[in-house]
């Protein structure tokens, strides 16, 4: 297993993983190849994308955005996805530790992320000692 920074030529494979994994429960998101690619490409321009490679194949990725504010440097995990066949094998944990160590070296004091409480990812983050905050609520509105 190898973790490296994504290159432009990796974006199609990354967007395919994103599209396929977000279509599953509890997310049930519907992305076309084009819209998924455009979303990943937009992240590529403003954030850091790291991929997990096994046997020369991309099996997952994480998107990290570094922020600078009044309290110093912070980080936000925009997305983290692994192909289903590679989940629950310690790969996600290694990827998170890689990012946490990278952030520490950059002087980042905290990492934020958003997770669906019904997802396996939520339990995964809890095991890694990420805490949910009851005073924060994700809100959205569907426009028609």
Q: Kindly state the percentage of residues in helix.
A: 25-40%
First-to-last CA distance: 44 Å
CATH architecture: 3-Layer(aba) Sandwich
Largest sheet: 5 strands, mixed
SSE pattern, N- to C-terminal: EHHEEEHEH
Cα gyration radius (Å): 15 Å
Quick overview:
This protein is α+β, with helices and mostly antiparallel strands. 34% of the residues lie in helices and 26% in strands. It has helices at residues 11-22, 33-46, 91-105, 120-127; strands at 2-5, 48-54, 57-69, 72-82, 111-113.
How do the helices and strands line up, and which of them pair or pack?
Layout: E1 2-5, H1 11-22, H2 33-46, E2 48-54, E3 57-69, E4 72-82, H3 91-105, E5 111-113, H4 120-127
Parallel strand pairs: 4-5
Antiparallel strand pairs: 1-2, 2-3, 3-4
Helix pairs in contact: 1-2
């Amino acid at each position: 297993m190898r973790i490296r920074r994504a290159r432009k030529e990796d974006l199609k494979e990354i967007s395919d993983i994103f599209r396929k994994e977000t279509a599953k429960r509890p997310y049930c998101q519907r992305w076309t190849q084009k819209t998924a690619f455009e979303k990943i490409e937009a992240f590529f321009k403003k954030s850091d994308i790291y991929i997990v490679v096994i046997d020369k194949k991309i099996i997952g990725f994480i998107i990290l955005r570094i922020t600078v504010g009044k309290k110093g440097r912070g980080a936000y995990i925009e997305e983290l996805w692994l192909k289903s066949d590679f989940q629950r094998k310690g790969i996600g944990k290694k990827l998170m530790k890689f990012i946490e160590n990278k952030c520490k070296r950059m002087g980042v004091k905290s990492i934020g992320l958003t997770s669906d409480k019904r997802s396996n990812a939520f339990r995964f983050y809890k095991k890694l000692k990420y805490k949910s905050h009851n005073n924060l609520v994700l809100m959205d509105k569907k426009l028609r």
